[in-house]
Amino acid sequence: MSAEHQWRWQPLLEQWVLIAATSGSRPWSGASTTQVSEAVPEHDPNCYLCPGVTRARGGINPNYVAPWAFDNDFASLVPVAPTADETNRSDDPLNRTAPPRGRCRVLCWHPSHNKTLAACSEQEIVDVAKLWQSEYASLSSDDSIAQVMMFENKGKEVGVSNLHPHGQIYAANAVSDYGQRIRQSQHQYAQANNGQPLLQALLARDEYKDALLVEQGSYFKTIVPFAARLPFETWIVPLRHVQSVNHFDSAELLELSLMYQRQVRRYDQLFQRSSPLLTLFQNAPCDTNQANADWCFHIALQPPLRDSDTLKYFAGYEASSNNVVNPVQPEKAAAALRGCDPDKAQTW
Ligand SMILES: [Zn+2]
Asked: Which of 15, 195, 225, 302 has the fewest C-beta atoms under 10 angstroms from its C-beta?
């Protein structure tokens, strides 16, 4: 059995991933996804993220000129007075309920509707990263918040029709399922290895010095994880153990933001389009759990594509197992990404 057919252990989620690289060359007669090029205006009066626009519920966006955030008008999590919570709580083992408190934020990366992160200037992308810092610092200081989940959904393939460059935050009063797993795995690894952080131990391994390395920076590495769950998943991981984005100094933040931008450009080149992408900014939970100290910040980038016009679906096998089949060998994915020119920003 070759490395093209292998169970690989994903140590953060403590989960097996089935690498089945030949399934990527199966005849495909299923759905394809293509991007139709269309002219996108710099300002869209019907976009609720554009400067100066009146939103559906009456709020008026300021004429912002730098990254800007606001509370989502249709939030899944809202702050509620603690007294109201008691009517929304049950410990009945078959019908447990709990009050979902928190805040949902919308993060506008740029005032221009048609700007992509790949095309931002150095200062603009650093300003975006400073918003990651300020939002995490502000929300994590709220005692009612247990985890600040920051992410970007990009592209109609992941359900986003609004092209305006933006991310989101779910700051919840509970740690997510994945959050609990990732925290527990890092804590257990550190406890078993004299405090050594899991992700830095991973980076020190030989495969992350060549075969799975996409970019080596002074403070970060961009890697394809050995047990990548998506065909072209990458992680940007700091060389030093840092729990959350707000602890990076200006030199680190500059490199992080530029490496992030270069990885977005690689995806655009690889798929010859403005690539759909899920970007997960994995900051430590901010509740009182001592295990948070062992969490290391990283960015997980997960394009949903197998190639430029085919989606990777999470279908019956994934739904019935919670394991994942990855049809692309991670070493080949890393080689393909290394072959892209990250300094070339193209307009698609
Ligand atoms: Zn817009």
From this structure: 195
